[in-house]
Amino acid sequence: MPESSSVTSGTGVVPDDSEAGSDAPATRSGDGAGGSAGAAAAGPAVVDRETLRLALVVGGLVLAVLLGFGLGRMNAPAGPARPGSATAGGVATGGADGGAHAHSPGTGAHTHDGATVTQGGGDGATGLSITSAGYTLVPSTELVAGRAGELRFQIRDDQRRAVTRFAVVHDKPMHVIMVRRDLSGYRHLHPTMAADGTWSVPITAPEAGPWRMYADFTAVADDGRQVAVVLGADLTASGAYRPRPLPAAATSATVDGFTVGYAGTPEVGKSVPLRFRATGADGAAALEPYLGAYGHLVALREGDLGYLHVHPEPVRDGDDVTFWLTAPGPGSYRMFLDFQVGGVVRTAEFTLTVA
pTM value? Predict the structure, then answer.
């Protein structure tokens, strides 16, 4: 870290062809009239030189203050990023205050009690990087379209050590989202961890092409702090990739005989409530808690596949489940709502356009 620099600024010296002590008017030989005229002529010159000297002194002092302030800002100490601290790529809050934190855009009611919450994208979307907050996602998986396989990966710290301590958040220590780049084929998985820190879960990629995986977890750092992070990595399922266009925007979807609709219009940079309701043949569906909540909402942004994971308010509003969502920017999004009825988890999918 560079030490603070000091600036030494002296006052200017004004060249003067008169003798030292020229404050007194110069006397000249000659008659009185000539002497008086000489004194009168010398007076303004002395005053002008003194004024100039004073102006230079004041200007030098002002310049010294401004230079000192500027260099002080340039040399302001910047602490090293570490797990659990604020980083350039994210926002770290909470920790010592008992877990209370202000939500970054897009996170809504997504809470991590006692955890330092680190978000990735500068605009609130996460999962855009394979490394964040001192943690790195290291996948070791080969996907073959239509063939049963296994998703395997580790989370490593900034010393390349496999992380093995994770907090249980929403009933699981690790949440994995898989989606194809055209925003089809969504999967919400919960892998298990081996003693060496390798996570694994069975998976079959239904279609070939580029896929994106997101590891959503809360790691426990060496000093005991909990750091919530979302990391993303690209995977490829071998075979010919035939992308499908994004479905048209709609506020309702049908899945397994249930109709799920929502009310609310997300806005860029503003937290807006979205109220979801699932209905069946007999009316409002009897939603059951799933992973500690009455629903889980993931929104993925078309293009960069920025990730937003939003959990609902703990108390339902009648038959509705309310999520608070902040759109990080304009564009098209694909929303995936997981809900459980009769012990079966279903996923309703929506396309959303944010102006």
Answer: 0.68
